[in-house]
């Protein structure tokens, strides 16, 4: 495990770096590497995904789904979005296309929904239909819900990734701590389903029955990024407590330890045992102290930045940065950090090989291309 301190911190009195340890991350002004172009502004944008024709869908947390045509400079609000429980960290979340979207325009949305007991994350699938009058969601069906609901407004997570007919969903601990270690609820877990919401028979906790049949992994706090690398390994970054953000290699049946262990501390400065004290829990591959507050995640596979192919890009909220991670099989380290001056909520690779960023709050959509 690599624990990253702030790169600008003085190395005086620090122990020597082991010979096999990676170089500390570089801090590089983004304008030295990228041409940065503003493409539009949105209200509390949370996620985006590109359609096969190059247009993109952007979610706004208050409950709007926008269909954006960058070439025509046109934005259409998509009708039929489900009611969201907007407030705090809650609202409309992720948007992901089914791999066969070009043949059948099916997509998936995650969001915080209201209900008995408070609010909780949900995932729905629907068809995107376009007419001369606009665009709408049809045949919307909720295929997964976070249980139980809670009055709190944080740690929904609800990131989605699809591969080979399966769907993985991150389910946050809702700031309730102990549910992440319990088998009677699906909080603090990564969930694995078929892409229609059915539960596969080969999930690792299926023999426990009930809601545990959904679990792929457990012991998570607030996973806000999921991505597969080119070799099919699933990676997740997790917003930890004070000084405890993580990048994890996600392996079926593993328990990642929250809240029993962490590389950070509670916000009131109470200690939490580290992963090294409890070897039964899976330790992170990278931990950040100070935190970066990770949000959004893509593992780059394009040709526009050939030197970055296979690298991960993570948006930083409190760090106001774009974080580049270099992978080496099952190892990883932060290679470079680009201070953006704004909280970065989402990162995506476009069909043109450019990197696209969404800022948090009053959200600019940015396109990053190689410096000329």
Structure description:
The chain is mainly β and 372 residues long. 0% of the residues lie in helices and 46% in strands. The protein has one domain (24-370): 6 Propeller (Neuraminidase), CATH 2.120.10.30. An 8-stranded mixed sheet has the order 4-5-6-7-11-10-9-8, with no helix packed on it. It has no helices and 26 strands.
Question: What attributes characterize this protein structure?
Answer:
372 residues, Neuraminidase, eight-stranded mixed sheet, five-stranded mixed sheet, globular
> What is the terminal separation in angstroms?
37 Å
Low-pLDDT stretches? 5-14
Share of helical residues: under 10%
Query: How would you sum up the major sheet?
Result: 8 strands, mixed
Q: How many separate domains?
A: 1
Average pLDDT level: 95
Question: Strand sequence of the main sheet, in spatial order?
Answer: 4-5-6-7-11-10-9-8
* Proportion in β-strands: over 45%
| CATH topology call | Neuraminidase
Q: Which sequence of SSEs, written as H and E, runs from N to C?
A: EEEEEEEEEEEEEEEEEEEEEEEEEE
Using the CA coordinates, give the radius of gyration: 20 Å
What is the highest CATH level, the class? Answer: Mainly Beta
Number of strands: 26
Second-tier CATH architecture = 6 Propeller
Number of helices: 0
CATH H-level superfamily? TolB, C-terminal domain
The chain-level structural class is: mainly beta
């Amino acid at each position: 495990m690599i624990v990253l301190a702030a790169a600008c911190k003085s190395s005086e009195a620090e122990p020597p770096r082991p010979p096999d340890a990676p170089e500390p991350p570089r801090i590089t002004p983004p304008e030295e590497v990228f041409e940065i172009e503003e493409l539009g502004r949105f209200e509390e944008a949370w996620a985006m995904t590109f359609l096969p024709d190059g247009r993109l869908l952007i979610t706004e947390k208050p409950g709007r789904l926008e269909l954006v045509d960058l070439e025509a400079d046109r934005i259409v609000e998509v009708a039929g979005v489900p009611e969201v429980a907007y407030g705090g960290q809650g609202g409309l979340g992720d948007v992901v296309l089914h791999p066969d979207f070009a043949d059948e325009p099916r997509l998936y949305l995650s969001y915080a929904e209201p209900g008995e007991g408070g609010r909780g994350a949900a995932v729905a699938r629907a068809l995107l239909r376009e007419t001369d009058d606009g665009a709408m969601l049809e045949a919307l069906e909720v295929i997964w819900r976070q249980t139980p609901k809670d009055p709190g407004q944080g740690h929904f997570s609800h990131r989605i990734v699809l591969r080979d007919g399966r769907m993985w969903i991150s389910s946050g601990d809702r700031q309730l701590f102990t549910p992440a270690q319990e088998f009677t609820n699906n909080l603090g877990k990564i969930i694995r389903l078929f892409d229609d919401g059915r539960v596969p028979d080969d999930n690792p906790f299926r023999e426990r029955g009930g809601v545990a049949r959904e679990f792929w992994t457990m012991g998570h706090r607030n996973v806000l990024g999921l991505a597969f690398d080119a070799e099919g390994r699933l990676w997740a970054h997790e917003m930890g407590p004070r000084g405890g953000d993580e990048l994890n290699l996600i392996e079926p049946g593993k328990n990642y330890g929250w809240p029993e262990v962490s590389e950070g501390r509670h916000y009131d400065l109470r200690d939490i045992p580290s992963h090294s004290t409890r070897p039964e829990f899976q330790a992170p591959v990278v931990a950040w102290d100070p935190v970066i507050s990770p949000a959004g995640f893509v593992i780059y596979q394009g040709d526009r930045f050939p030197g970055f192919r296979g690298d991960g890009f993570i948006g930083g909220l409190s760090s106001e940065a774009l974080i580049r991670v270099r992978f080496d099989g099952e190892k990883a380290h932060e290679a470079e950090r680009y201070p953006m001056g704004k909280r970065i909520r989402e990162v995506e690779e476009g069909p043109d090989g450019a990197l696209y960023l969404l800022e948090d709050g009053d959200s600019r959509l940015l396109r990053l291309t190689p410096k000329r």
